[in-house]
Amino acid sequence: MKKVVVFDYGSGNVHSACRALEKSGASVTLTADRKQALEADGLLIPGVGAFSAVMEKLNRANVASLLDSRLAAGRPVMGICVGMQVMFETGLEHGIETEGFGQWPGRVEMLKAPTLPHIGWSRVESGEKSVLFNGVEGERFYFVHSYGVREWTLDVQAPFVEPVLTWSEHGEEFLAAVENGPLCATQFHPEKSGLAGLKLLENWISNL
Which residues are catalytic? Predict the structure, then answer.
């Protein structure tokens, strides 16, 4: 059974993620122990709240070096919701720009939509060759957010492989998920997305 660490840095509502991962076939540990986080088959970074507040907590836990160590070794990491947003260069909230981890270029900003926050089920259009969405292409997933990555250009040169991008729409298009080698992330909450979410987590776990 694959071992997954859900990194415990003080983010709210992590127990539903732990339960969903267990239902999807993983042995799950909720911990801030760096040794366990480095050695696990998979590391999940949850995120609830404002970009700046989440980054402050992650920086206090020195998660940047943890991410770098795992990704340099090709060890899988998954981010959820704000855990996805912090993988980008910056987040802009209430006029304040906060530096993210910069694993991916791009800026997280408020969606241009008639109603915010975006709460509820929305369909996604999964990218070609997606592993995460195998068997759940075009399904609906559960979102709770007002901010996202609205456009993204990444110039990838051989031998590197283009990331797989999945998009959704609320007022405008935004990135719903990214699969980029050992690093992947979803803007939606797979742990709150019923059978489709469990299948997505199962796909991730089976490829650890």
Answer: 81, 189, 191
Contact call for residues 175 and 182 (beta carbons, < 8 A):
no
How distant is the alpha carbon of residue 163 from its chain centre?
A: 14
Tens-place pLDDT, residues 100-141: 999 999 999 999 999 999 999 999 999 999 999 999 998 999
Per-residue pLDDT of 35-78, as tens digits, reads 999 999 999 999 988 999 999 999 999 999 999 999 999 999 99
How would you write the chain as a 3-class SS string?
CCEEEEECCCCCCCHHHHHHHHHCCCEEEEECCHHHHHHCCEEEECCCCCHHHHHHHHHHCCHHHHHHHHHHCCCCEEEECHHHHCCEEEEEECCEEEECCCCEEEEEEECCCCCCCEEEEEECECCCCCCCCCCCCCCEEEEEECEECCCCCCCCCCCCCCCEEEEEEECEEEEEEEEECCEEEECCCHHHCHHHHHHHHHHHHHCC
62 burial (CB, 10 Å; 0-12 / 13-18 / 19+) is: exposed
- For the purposes of burial, counting CB atoms within 10 Å of the CB of 10, is it exposed (0-12), middle (13-18) or buried (19 or more)? middle
Burial of 134 (0-12, 13-18, 19+ CB in 10 A): middle
**pTM tops 0.85, yes or no:** yes
